[in-house]
Amino acid sequence: MATFSAIRTRCAVRFFDSSNVIITDLVWKDYVNACYRRINGAEPLWPWRETTTTTLTIAAETRSATLPTDVFRVVSAFNSTNKSKLTPTEGIAEHLFQWASQTEDGVPVQYRVFNNQFQVYPLPTILTTFTIEYLVRPADLGADGDIPVFPSEYHDLLVEGALADAYLDDGNLKQQVAHEARYKEQFMQMREDVLSERTERYSEITDNFY
């Protein structure tokens, strides 16, 4: 199990530049966290993702409220005032491009997420409360002792990804390609491992003797 400090040290040890360019610890933090966000954002169904809820209120004849900054994806929305579930508009093209001009009011039955705003349709006629369930965006690694949320056997993903970015900025495309390939190989292996079935499935024996 690698700590944030150990991951940065491994990056620094493995990075080589013929012109003796030295990457500071602060820059390695940026490279590692860029890779960390890349991994965590790649799959909404990662098993380490957690959901939480928040309550939003939208005033009468108003369309939207600001979502918390840690929202990765809204899972469901419930109109707590009118005791009804809202449906998302994603995939309903005729709504996506006309929201700005839609002024109908009533009991909100649909929602969309736009620029970190939770927007509803139609516009509520009264102050309305909504309960939002959402996937949490994992926080960046910060303290030296922080541990990445994904399985420890794949922590080296962060090293490969950070090195790929560092060599890209350094102009060493040969090394960048090599580390990016290694990153993708390890990433695909992790995806296969952690998104597979977590329980054994045995044939069910049905008793049909009468």
Task: Give the helices and strands, then pairings.
Layout: H1 4-14, H2 25-40, E1 51-58, E2 64-66, E3 71-79, E4 84-85, E5 87-88, H3 93-96, E6 105-106, E7 110-114, E8 117-121, E9 123-124, E10 128-136, H4 156-170, H5 173-194
Parallel strand pairs: 5-7, 6-9
Antiparallel strand pairs: 1-10, 2-8, 3-4, 3-10, 7-8
Structural write-up:
The protein has 2 domains: 4-46 and 140-194, no CATH class; 51-136, no CATH class. Helix content is 32%, strand content 22%. Strands 1-10-3-4 form a 4-stranded antiparallel β-sheet, with no helix packed on it. It has a 4-stranded mixed β-sheet with strand order 2-8-7-5, with no helix packed on it. It has helices at residues 4-14, 25-40, 93-96, 156-170, 173-194; strands spanning 51-58, 64-66, 71-79, 84-85, 87-88, 105-106, 110-114, 117-121, 123-124, 128-136. The protein is of the alpha+beta class. It is elongated and about 65 Å long.
